[in-house]
Design brief:
This is MOSC domain-containing protein. InterPro entries: MoCF_Sase_C, MOCOS_middle, MOSC_domain, Pyrv_Knase-like_insert_dom_sf. This protein is mainly beta. It has 2 domains: about 5-30 and about 130-270, M1 Pyruvate Kinase, Domain 3 (Beta Barrel); about 30-120, no CATH class. About 10% of the residues lie in helices and about 30% in strands. Helix 3 crosses helix 4 (about 230-235). The chain is globular, with a radius of gyration of 19 Å.
Amino acid sequence: MRISDLFIYPLKSARGIAIPSTTVDVFGLIGDRRMMITDPQGHGITQRELQDLARIDVEPGTTSIRLKMQGKSDILVPPPQPERRMEVDIWKSVISAAVADDEANSQLSDWLGREVKLVFFDGLAKRIANPEWASGDTPVTFSDGYQILVTTSGSLKALNADLAKHGEGSVGMERFRPNIVLDCEEEWAEDRWAAIEIGGIRLDLVKPCARCIMTTQDQATGSREVPNPMPAMGRIRMSADRRVPGPLFGWNAVPRGEGTVAIGDEVTVIEERSEGWAFKARRA
């Protein structure tokens, strides 16, 4: 089993970037979800609320970050000043984040048709993952809850097979916004894995990922007039564990070391669960 794809999402809920290799640190993949868009009060905004975020491309640079959207003039965002800060919140976490300059925020607000702010998870920002699942003081950035999302090709194939069985269109892996995609052909094998190792880095698979309306949106346009994976997940992937309700796809992982990972790297399962995750009975 090997890595088939790697992705980072520099701006939360904007377009992802496919990469051949990257460094893993305590926060996950370098450059992943280090920026977020908020309303003026600091509440994080995602595609769930603003579908147009799927149209934003991010080009990280050494002296500035370039934001691009078709039909709009590019926005060049200089590094934020550490003293320019505001409290922001995402999924009940409150974080002191650095704020982009007024010009960038004004241009971005014009793009999106509402007042917004661009904020950064810089060296002064602090956030801890839910210790019920991650254990200890596990740091995390602006991701929904954990550092890395792992998915497998075999599970996507199984999901699309159910969609096809019911005359519904197939979906791509981009709908699930993973960081690491594995070429494991066995469907749902990841439900048994407690830990995997890549390049000497241990990744603990701590919690399955409950899926939301974002999986129903085209990740290039934000449109919801596209094939919808939710019916299939409702038929075959509904959690029976009240701690993580809803349809599940992929696993949240916590890195227990640092190093580099690359497409083609071998992946080893080093620990399995005594029992897989509990699911409701499948519907025909």
